[in-house]
Amino acid sequence: MPDYLDILAQTAKETIHSGYYNIAAAAASKLSLRKAILEAKNAPVIAEIKPASPSTGIIRKDIDVCSITRGIEKGGAVGISVLTEPKHFKGALHLLAEARKTSRLPLLMKDIILSPLQLDAASKLGADAVLLIAALFERGYCECGIQDMIARAHALGLEVLLETHTEAEFRSAVRTQADLVGINNRDLATLKVDLNTTKEILQRNSPEGKIVVSESGIKTPANVRFLHACGAHAFLIGSAVMFADNIEKKVKEFVSAL
Fold first, then answer.
1. DSSP assignment, residue 27?
2. N or C: where does the chain have the smaller number of CB atoms within 10 Å of the terminal CB?
C-alpha cells in the first residue's frame, strides 16, 4: 500500500512531465538563508506562504503576496518559504516570482523536488534556497542521487535545506553538503505531527555543526521555546502564520519567543 509520501511523489512526477516547471525567467542574485539565521538577534523564523495542506485543506483563500510578505518582513522573520507544489498544497510558481518582486528576505522554494529541472525553475524565479526531502531519495523517486542534487543546487547559487524525519535520515543528512538540515515533525507517510520528533532526534544525534531547522506543528511561542531547548536553531512556520488575521503580529509573537 502506498503511503502519502508515495502519493506526493507520483503527483510530482506528473507535474514535472506536464511542463509546469519549464519556465524562461531570468535568474536573480542570491541571498543566504543560512547567514540570515546565523545573524538573527531573535528567534530565527522562516514564515511560509502556504495556501493549503493535505491534512488541513484550504488554509488561506486570498493569497495577496505583497501584503503577506510585507507582514512577514515587518514581523521580523529571517526568511520566507513559498509553497510551489500545485496539487496537494495549492501552491504556484507565480507566488514565488511575486514574493521575489516584493521581498528583500531570502526565499525558500518548498516543493516535492525530484528533478534538476525544478532547481532550474527555482533559480530562475528568484529562490535563494530549495527544500529537498531525504526520504524521496531513499525511495528512489529522484532523478539523481542526493549528493548530486545538492551539488547541482549549489552550482545554481541555491542553498539546500535537507529535510529528515528519522534518526537514520538525520545522521545521513548531516554528513552531506546541505547548508541546513530540517527535522519535519510531520510524518509525511501518515501526516501525523509530533514535536517530540525534533526532541528525540537531537537527544541522540549530533548535528555535526549543521544548522537545524524544526518544521511543522509549530503553533505557539511556547512551541518555539520547547524546540529551541531541544537544540533546534531555526523554525519553519506555515499554517499558524497563514491562519492569522494579522500576519505581522503573529510572526512577531514567534520571533519574540526567545
1. P
2. N
